[in-house]
Design a protein that fits this description.
The protein is an alpha+beta fold. 33% of the residues lie in helices and 25% in strands. It folds into two domains: 134 residues, Nucleic acid-binding proteins (OB fold (Dihydrolipoamide Acetyltransferase, E2P)), CATH 2.40.50; 277 residues, Bira Bifunctional Protein, Domain 2 (BirA Bifunctional Protein, domain 2, 2-Layer Sandwich).
């Protein structure tokens, strides 16, 4: 830390010396007409003689990431948002601006104008005729940034991570392409994008523990939304037939490589369709997004090749359990199911419903083995308070979850539009909440009232954008695809020595 403080002091001293020379270390805007990648693409194939024969002027700006001073001249690399390019600085060409060169440090942001040429090592380079310091960096970039020990620092100081790790910048560029491809796909199918409230008086649309806040003017508690579902279905009641929202959800749950309390979710609803339709729709969506974002439907995730080419297997939940060695005779007997699960050392809380027990068994026995894209369908009704019952088996609902590499990526169902059945399910959820289930669904009387006006048969789906991006960028942690993930405070009363 002492060495770092000394380096910062040296840089601050250089900044003060620049001001004494009449050079402002935090400069004005600079017109950079060219980017590194564009120059390398357009002129990278030209020979030294071709470049010498035609004067190609350019202007660029970026951060100094390498600097080698040879006295009368210096070579450096500047990095912009597209990549790096070398610059050549001659003191006799720069005139009075050469005073800047001794004051430069790695990390400074500069603007240059000049002509393109090739060096003796055949590298495309800008021979600088005009040079400006745009921003003085007083804090040095880390010399050694890669490695497990730096992971939390990389997440906490994402701005530095983006500077020194080009692959991180590329992954977030891919994330942007994924989101654009999702929007393009849905809008090509006639969907419209909408916005619904982030603060709810009644949290709903999923079974999860919400974040709670208080609105002073209204004098009421509000909850950050756990899902937009109930508002989007109100829009179906209002006459929209295809709607989607791509936005943030908030769930007051654990943090892990798969979970962040604030995450991006796509939810979309389509009238007059069911969950069977959505399975084919989802296959088409994922394949198109993969092609647009990474150029292939075959992607590597870790050491496994994932094939997103449709169609994907569709397996009923109970069938998947039976195929994994779970005896089918326990499926309708909560006590037998609980005893069997506990014999396998699975954690089954007291008072768990039949559906909850089967869900816990599924997570242990089936989920880890679902590597290639697989739809698990037809879940117990207790797990799905907003889904329509199956006509031939009212104990199950028309629902699917999509799993890839043992992780749930999407959840969808035929929407329950019977207000009487919906109210009964809400009441069951209220009982569960009163019995201690913090994630049980709340009663929402206004949503029941909306259904009483009539909602058309519909299908709806939620897709975890962060998890989708994880697969398409080969990221092993959700924190690698969220620019600023939630972390423990850097300073606490126990360790804060600045007070």
């Amino acid at each position: 830390m002492e060495d770092l403080n000394d380096l910062i002091k040296q840089r601050i001293r250089k900044m003060e010396e620049l001001r004494e020379l009449g050079i402002e270390p935090y400069g004005r805007p600079f017109q950079a007409d060219d980017h590194a990648a564009e120059l390398l693409t357009k002129y990278g194939g030209r020979t030294k003689d071709e470049l010498d024969a035609t004067i190609i002027e350019c202007s660029a700006a970026g951060r100094l990431v390498a600097y080698r001073d040879f006295g009368k001249a210096a070579f450096a690399h500047i990095q912009d948002s597209t990549g790096r390019i070398q610059i050549y600085l001659k003191r006799d060409v720069l005139g009075d601006r050469h005073k800047l060169l001794k004051k430069l440090d790695i990390g400074d942001i500069v603007g240059v104008r000049g002509r393109l040429f090739r060096t003796k090592t055949d590298e495309l380079t800008i021979e600088v005729s005009h040079f400006e310091l745009m921003t003085k960096s007083v804090r040095p970039l880390p010399e050694k940034w890669h490695g497990l020990k730096d992971v939390e620092t990389r997440y906490r100081q994402r701005y530095v991570d983006l500077i020194v790790n080009p692959e991180v910048r590329e992954n977030f560029a891919k994330r942007s392409r994924v989101i654009r491809a999702v929007r393009d796909f849905l809008e090509s199918k006639g969907f419209i994008e909408v916005e619904t409230p982030m603060m709810h008086q009644i949290p709903g649309g999923a079974t999860a523990r919400p974040f709670k806040t208080h609105h002073n003017a209204l004098g009421i508690d509000l909850y950050l939304r756990i899902a937009p579902e109930l508002y989007l279905k109100r829009l179906l009641v209002g006459g929209y037939e295809r709607v989607y929202e791509l936005n943030k959800n908030f769930r007051n749950e654990g943090i892990s490589t798969r979970h962040n309390p604030e995450f991006s979710m796509l939810e979309f609803y389509i009238a007059y369709r069911d969950y069977q339709f959505l399975m084919s729709f989802t296959e088409e969506l994922f394949a198109e997004v993969a092609m647009k974002a990474v150029g292939s439907t075959r992607i590597m995730y870790g050491d496994v090749e994932i094939d997103l080419t449709p169609p994907w297997p569709r397996i009923p939940m109970l069938e998947s359990l039976e195929k994994s060695g779970v005896p089918p005779e326990i499926f309708n007997d909560p006590e037998k199911a609980k005893a069997w699960a506990r014999a396998q050392k699975y954690d089954i809380p007291e008072g768990s419903s039949m559906g909850k027990i089967l869900d816990e068994i599924f997570k242990e026995k089936v989920e880890p083995g679902l590597v290639q894209p697989t739809f698990i369908t037809d879940h117990p009704v207790e797990l799905s308070p907003l889904a329509k019952r199956k006509a031939d088996n009212p104990g199950l609902v028309e629902r699917f979850e999509l799993f890839i590499c043992g992780r749930e990526v999407a959840n969808a169902f035929s929407e329950l539009n019977d207000p009487f059945d919906q109210k009964g399910r809400f009441l069951e959820q209220v009982k569960a909440k009163q019995a201690g289930d913090d994630e049980a669904h709340w009663m929402d009387e206004d949503f029941i009232r909306a259904l009483e006006y009539g909602m058309p048969p519909a299908a709806g789906e939620g897709i975890g954008i962060d998890r989708l991006v994880m697969f398409l960028t080969n990221a092993q942690s959700i924190r690698d695809v969220i620019l600023f993930p939630q972390l423990k405070p850097e300073h606490t009363p126990e360790n804060d020595t600045d007070a």
